[in-house]
Amino acid sequence: MTHEHHRLLPIALHIDNSIVFTKETFWIQLQWTKAHLLAMNQRSSVSTVPKTNPLRVGFIGLSATKGWAIKSHYPAILQLPSQFQITAVLNLDVETSKSTISKLKLTRAKAFENIEQFAQYDKIDLVVVSVNVPNFHQLVVDLFKYSQGSPNFKYLFSEWSLGRNLQEAQEIYQLASSRGIRTIVSLQGRKSPYVLRAKELVSQGCIGHINSIEVSVIGGFYGYERPSKSPDYLYDAESGVNLISMAFGHTVDILQYITGSYFSQVNAMIFNNIPTQALIDERGKNMGQEKSKSAPDHLLFQGSLKTGNVPVSCSFKGGTPVKKFTKNLVFDIHGTKGDLKLEGDAGFAEMSNLVLYFCGQRPSEDLSTSSAETMEVYHLRNYNSMVGNILRIYEAVADHHFKTNARSKLTENYTRQGFQFGGFPTFADAILVHRLIDVVLRSHDQKATLPVPDTDNINAPQDVPPLPD
Amino acid sequence: MILSNELTRLKLAMSVPSYQTFEDIPDRLQESYTEVIRDFKVVYGHNAEFVTRSPGRVNLIGDHIDYVDFSVLPMAIEHAVTCAVKVTPSTEIPSVTLTNSDSRFAQRRFDLPLDGSDISIDPSVSDWSNYFKCGLHVAQQYLKTRFAARFPADTPLAGLEVFVGGQVFTGGGLSSSAAFICAVALAVIRANTGHDFKMPKQELTQITAKAEHFVGVNNGGMDQAASVCGEVDHALYVEFKPELKATPFMFPKLKNSEIQFVIANTMVVSNKVETAPTNYNLRVVEVVVAANVLAAKYGVALGRVGNSEKTTLREFMDAYYARYHGATEPWNGDIEQGISRLTEMLKLVEDTLAEHSSGYTLQQASEAVNSSMQEFSRDYLTNFPVRFQVLKLYQRAKHVYSESLRVLEALKLMLRESFASDLEFFDPFGQLMNESQKSCDEMYECSCPEIDEICKIAKANGAYGSRLTGAGWGGCTVHLVPLSKVDDVREALAEQYYAKHDMQGLTLDDVVLVSRPALGSCIMEVGS
């Protein structure tokens, strides 16, 4: 393994981005893929203790007692304390920040009263924003406004999505682009080991050409019941946080990433058949009260992938009751030479532990001489996907910033991850998902199949080319 | 676990030796101790508090049967992993810093969760700190269960600065991973309990036996038992059923020669984690499926025991004897009874599994255990990632039963009081090793051309028996050689093998080891 790896290395480093991949260069591309994957999975020689100072992290929305950040970002940062150090905390009230700092013993962190002071603090290199989407746009607009004079602000790491709608997201994207900072978005499904293994098998030609794809997902909050403590904005169609932005957004991004193709045309139907939901208490007991809901509870989506005109059929169920005879998350990818299926008990592929089933052609690293089909089941029993996928984004950012891993070096004009194995997703990747969501909404409104706008004006220098014949 | 004193006159220490001053440390360990505390100081700028040491092992015979609960014959070797450690002040955030003497393993630092929760381990990534985390994890669980009052569930353990020195080849089949994990678990326990604590060997073995499962390797407990319970000049008989038990014994005294085991590294790196889906873990799955196919054929019910909690070939043997021979108790380890039962098992393997000697497809295997392909995948294939074209149940089961049989024969030879001539030991023991190698190669398919080449050279130059040791697919080989022939074997290997292979900057002494059975895990305090 190691010897082969060294042999491949020069090929990987000498590949010119401008090479047009043909049948002849296909094998080089396979090796390129392989070398990158090895670089990604073998981390023993990659130091997590750089010679220079850690990136100073200003955290908006980190609370020791509640929210997503304490369950995912914080444990990820704990594993890389020499590369990331929290120096500033901002919450809606300063008391939350102060108690978070003391509870988590963030000895180097300062609590801030408001975004203006936070943005002007000169000890922040990386701002992480993990707040409710409805508050996101104004907050980030203010962050850019007040941080004009801050020379150290180099990275902005935001949760998906970048605002309530495409327009808000575009504005944020423009602000970040014109500021020239590096952006990172939590489309962390791209770092799931299951997604990467699926992408690897597809890109190695193990299932041949993709013939068709079915996806079915359960969204979580949008069934007949909702927890009484769940915030109202989740159920408000205008808030931009719903079945489509969350379940569909993450899922479709993962699907495009695995297949290495964007969509060319789509058609969607959006439902709100459950206008009122029953409230349940913490033990799941019906409380005999109801609340109204304007957010959708079902999405039917179909479309075709640009590469190979592949038919994709998706059904997103809102929530409870969960399915009795089918997994809550299924990606079923059918190829000319094999099949690949991802299954999960929870609906969210980006943060759950999945199982990958594959049957088809032998992967290139498999030296077996048997003529039978290859069968693979990939499941990591102890993998903590809530922390792990986010941790891998932080690792990719650290690899880039500290130049720890020569093999995973980003190109100079890295603007988006596109379909590369390495790197991290950026706001440009997020915008493409926002655009797709916008087409979905318009398709529903217009009752029409619509083309997906070209991706050309958002540049991706290293998109993996389609497989040759 | 039980540490048994029944086969040696030596009075065995039941807890891990702890040396309080430099003078107490056995002479052979002083050099590595001095080296690792010096390196610690260079890196961290102050003195370490203590050093833990845990050796690698070589398995003389009985490979790939520990996870099926059959007994094995390993011995600890002089090459070991050492960890020099300092506990960081409790006023700071508990953080672990790791530095390795080998530059292929880059520096690491991570904080311990303040709420005392477990550190997460990502088994999809190959990272040396994962092994540290395995040792840390089992030590933390141990402290929190055994000393619940002193280590409340919601408080973190102490932060550590660690320098890791080691001479065990990684990926060399001498179990560097188990040695490392045992040294780490011992260090974490010592760091948190203080220098007075006596760590029972039995408990250290118990907690480390399955630690590697957290990085996704479904191993048995042989390596940890050997690393922890090793004794100078003693090999070990390690049993897993009815209980995990290690029994040290000395090699027989021969009339004219001394028994030596020479270890030669193929220089082919075999990383158990990275190749697990097609190698190590796949074998574990194949033997579990084989046990269930046999159980289905003979209509016996099996409990959920063993590594994958889906039964073992040993349990099938007991269930079969219970149903067809009225055996009221499972096999208790008696040698003669074991030989007769294993011989019977080999017959059943021929009768049942030989019809698919080219391997079972997923569909054939599912049918053979009377389940659908979906049920089969769920029950047998989701514990660890696996990839295959066919499952070679016949070959794998045949290897396991015959290899277990060879261990019993080997043990009989080792325990014999006297031999009319030295050849009465060398010939049959060597023969068992050669048969074991053949079975590993042809039945278990865990050998490789380099192993075959080394074995051939060694046998032509004085070795009576030559085989791979450890998981295989590269790594090290072990050779039974009388002391008088050791130099011949070494020189032949140097000329005929190593001259043609990349030595990666190592000398012959680094790649060919002539080791006496060595001491197991120990703690060495650094005097003030």
From TrEMBL, chain A:
Ranges for region Disordered: 450-469
Domain Gal80p-like C-terminal, residue spans: 193-344
Annotated ranges, domain Gfo/Idh/MocA-like oxidoreductase N-terminal: 55-185
Gene3D superfamilies: Dihydrodipicolinate Reductase, domain 2, NAD(P)-binding Rossmann-like Domain
Lineage, top ranks: Eukaryota, Fungi, Dikarya, Ascomycota, Saccharomycotina
Entry's transmembrane regions: none
Gene Ontology MF term list: nucleotide binding
Identification of the protein by name: LAME_0D04632g1_1
Origin species: Lachancea meyersii CBS 8951
Top-level taxon: Eukaryota
TrEMBL record, chain B:
Transmembrane residue ranges: none
Swiss-Prot/TrEMBL keywords: ATP-binding, Carbohydrate metabolism, Galactose metabolism, Nucleotide-binding
A GO BP entry: galactose metabolic process
A Pfam family annotated for this UniProt entry: GalKase_gal_bdg
Every GHMP kinase C-terminal domain range: 425-498
Signal peptide: none
Name the UniProt record assigns to this protein: LAME_0A03994g1_1
